[in-house]
Amino acid sequence: MTDTLTGSPGPTGDDSDHVTLRGGDLGWRPVSSALATVRLIVLGCVLVAPLVVSVVVAVLVTPWVWLGTLAVLLVAAWGVWIVRRQVSAISWVELDEEIVIRRGRLFRTLVSVPYGRLQYVDIQSGPLMRAFGIASCELHTASPESGGALPGLPTAEAEELRARLARRGEAQRAGL
Amino acid sequence: MSTAEPPPEPPEDRTGDEGWQRLHPLSPMLRGGLFLVAVVGYLVSGVVDRTLRSVDDSLGVPGAPDTTEGLEFLARMPLVGASVLVVVLALIGVGSWVSWRFARFRVADGQVELRSGVLFRQHRQVPLERIQAVETTRPLLARLTGLSQVVVQSAGGSDSHLALAYLHQARAEEVRAHLLELAGQADETVAGAVVGPGDGPVGVTTHRAATEEEPVVTVPNGRLFVATILHGSSLALALIAALALGSAGALELGVVVLGAAPALVPVVFGLGVVRVKELLVHGNFALSRTGTALRIRHGLTELRAASVPLHRVQAVEAVQPLWWRPFGWWRLRVNVAGVHGSDGDDGETTLLPVGTLEETLAVLAILGARSDDPLVATALHGSGPDGGWVGPPRAARWFDPLSWRRIGYALSDATVHLRSGRLGRRVAIVPYARVQSTTLGQGPIEARLGLASAKLVSTPGPVSAGVRHLTVPDAERFLDVVGERTRVARRRTGTATSGDTPLAVAPLAPDAPRLVD
């Protein structure tokens, strides 16, 4: 379909490194599996209250509330499944001039951020994430909507990534 | 309105040193504007009221019941009232004077600086090379006194704007032109450092900048009025009104409609306000070109003039609502870094509120999209794959039953063209060198149909550039090809240079003609 390129020098067709929506042969790297653990803990904290309440009410008032307990358990199971799938769907790869981040299974998104467009990189980690030694790394460009985020990198790797991105960003800086 | 005591030590020398300049002495009054008018008006009306009533009393006419409660005491004793008035005025005067003495600005050391505040000092500076646009605005009160405000916009949100309020109109124009020229030079030196000397006619165009001004387009208010009325919401209003009137005859239905009327009032009012505001913002519209910048003048009551350096334009959008099609009118808007077309105020980002096809093409040509480029013509009016357009497959008709043949993208040497909309038309043009990042997205239904949507992310603004529901291979190819070309474009430009037309920034074909002159 080179007829889509209206008579101008097209890209040099180097077919080895095509970025595709479903991954490919590039060295896609996953995020830390600790992210799933962290998210599961958060999920557990949210669900433990309704679980306890429903059990107490079921024991003390009416056994019909066991149905509620069942519902909470179902939600929990579904949540666990979703979290595992979501976390395993996040992957990223550093190319020569861009970093590409993929996420989602049901709703897939892929964002490709050129190093030269990076304004700054944020590293954040809450107490829970710190306990598991991971941090999230957020990329910011001149547009608030274009930055990607890598939610669960091992802290050391996140720091390295930031340093690397800053270096490459400086080298390939492109003006607004 | 600060009514602080006189300063302990006088501010530095008046003509002082390194070129600090003062704003116009009336500025604090104008900034306090409406408040001042209200206070003075209230006091004066109280006194006048009282005087009149005393005249009435002396004539034996029974006075109306006293309604001024807070100032009843003052009103009873005109002398005290008058002296209070004098004191208040004096305080305001002193406060304004002090605030005026303390507000100074200068253009030096590669930046614009503004110092203000008496108790809470503020020092704001904007580096010249960060200036995205400079505009002069004239609110109603300032207009009456012949003053203008200069607003320097820089990338980094509205917090980073610097407003010189107020200056004499002529002085404001001078400052604006001066700043724009300096900003252009700052760009040039940066560009020179990166690209190296001898890179095209950048210098030539810059030095000519901001001097002569060629008018490009003037939009007659009549056309704007018609165009503003021709809007989905106002047509809906007309429909509602027609229904109400028509059904008033049929009794039962009429009752229902009348019952619903009060609920509709806020809606109608809201829509009306939006329409009127649009008219106020875009009235008296004139676009002209000064060297490397576009100058926009607009505003029915509040005259505003904004300058957008051509090379700061990030993306362009042409929109034709369904109701404008019989007239062939288009609206052109742009994304400019640092100038947000948010909260409905798209005054600075609208290059043409409503223009004929020729005018639209003329403005596009200034931006670098030549009207003889077949891509421009097919982008505006075409549909289907003719002319190098890539669009969604037949499967996408489930999403876009009307427009799936029109949706698409096409690539030129320097830009990505995207079009959509079968009834109302929309075209976006983004230069490769201005793409911030690229995204692909796919929802579950799209996944079933083998489709994916692609989007080019630009800086914040009214223009969004995306193409929906391509086949997955097409979307991936879009990412690939556009990615490659943006890479090349970024390497070419390094940084934006004044003198570049946005849509023709560093054409990929090396022998392509420069479109500036």
Terminal CA distance of chain B reads 50 Å
Beta-strand content bin of chain B: 15-25%
Proportion in β-strands of chain A: 15-25%
Provide the structure class of chain A: alpha+beta
Count of helical segments of chain B? Answer: 14
The secondary-structure class of chain B comes to alpha+beta
The CATH class of the domain at 321-504 in chain B is identified as: Mainly Beta
Rg on CA atoms of chain B, Å: 29 Å
How are the strands of the biggest sheet of chain A laid out side by side? 1-2-3-4
Number of strands of chain B: 20
Low-confidence stretches of chain B: 1-16, 61-68, 188-210, 495-499, 505-517
Q: Give the largest interface.
A: A-B, 40 and 52 residues
Bin the helical content of chain A.
40-55%
Give a quick rundown of the structure.
Chain A has 176 residues and is α+β, with helices and mostly antiparallel strands. Chain A has helices at 34-60, 66-89, 127-131, 155-171; strands spanning 29-30, 91-94, 98-103, 108-114, 120-124, 134-140, 149-154.
Please describe the topology of this protein.
The complex is a heterodimer of chains A (176) and B (517).
Chain A: E1 29-30, H1 34-60, H2 66-89, E2 91-94, E3 98-103, E4 108-114, E5 120-124, H3 127-131, E6 134-140, E7 149-154, H4 155-171
Antiparallel strand pairs in A: 1-2, 2-3, 3-4, 5-6, 6-7
Chain B: E1 21-22, H1 27-31, H2 33-58, H3 72-76, H4 78-102, E2 104-108, E3 111-116, E4 122-127, E5 131-138, H5 140-145, E6 147-154, E7 162-168, H6 169-195, H7 202-207, E8 214-218, H8 221-229, H9 232-249, H10 251-282, E9 286-290, E10 293-298, E11 303-309, E12 313-320, E13 330-336, E14 350-355, H11 357-367, H12 374-381, E15 408-411, E16 415-420, E17 425-431, E18 437-442, H13 444-449, E19 451-457, E20 465-471, H14 472-493
Antiparallel strand pairs in B: 1-2, 2-3, 3-4, 5-6, 5-11, 6-7, 8-9, 9-10, 10-11, 12-13, 12-17, 13-14, 15-16, 16-17, 18-19, 19-20
Helix pairs in contact in B: 2-4, 8-10, 9-10
